[in-house]
Amino acid sequence: MDSRTPVSRAEIDAMDPRFRVQFINSLSGFKSLNLVGTVDADGRENLAIVSSVIHLGANPPLMAMVTRPRSVERHTVDNLMATGVFTLNHVRPDFVEAAHQTSARYPREQSEFAQVGLTPWYSGTFPAPYVAESALRIGLRWRESKLIELNDTELIIGEIDEVHLDQQAWRDDGSVDLEALD
């Protein structure tokens, strides 16, 4: 006999909205936590937290992220569409609170980097800002977007242009030891 209690769709729909978000978001298991770095055409830097990042393929090297609905201004999406570039920066425990604060609504001219106390860093070979405090930084060029009409979110697909990581975390088999990067 199974002791687990099923949760029906009707029960999910009846949940307090914040409770439902936490419940549904946790069902897929552990996710990476990333900060997306962008810059607009006027050089204003933007930083946004995202946990819906996936690997799409190794040849070409593709990653994707799901963005929130565009019911309000989405500076990150606007910037990466305008410039064609963005960065993904892994969040470490020592700045997780600052990372979460990037989800607050800031005016377009206000840099989330400055607001939350994180440092923009440029590699010299890629035009979008990285998070200096991150141990794994990925520069991507926008390749395609797909509107998900069911909930008005977007799947943003990027091709990896460069990766910055501590060489000690790079394993002999090619994989990255994420635990070593904290």
Defining traits:
182 residues, 34% strand, 20% helix, Pnp Oxidase, Chain A
Under the CATH scheme, which architecture would be assigned? Roll
What is the assigned CATH homologous superfamily?
Answer: Electron Transport, Fmn-binding Protein, Chain A
Please summarize the sheet with the most strands: 7 strands, antiparallel
Structural class: alpha+beta
Approximate strand percentage = 25-35%
Mean of residue pLDDT values: 90
How are the strands of the largest sheet arranged? 2-1-5-8-9-4-3
CATH class value: Mainly Beta
Calculate the terminal CA-CA distance, rounded to whole Å: 40 Å
User: Which term fits the overall shape?
Assistant: globular
Count all strands and give the number: 9
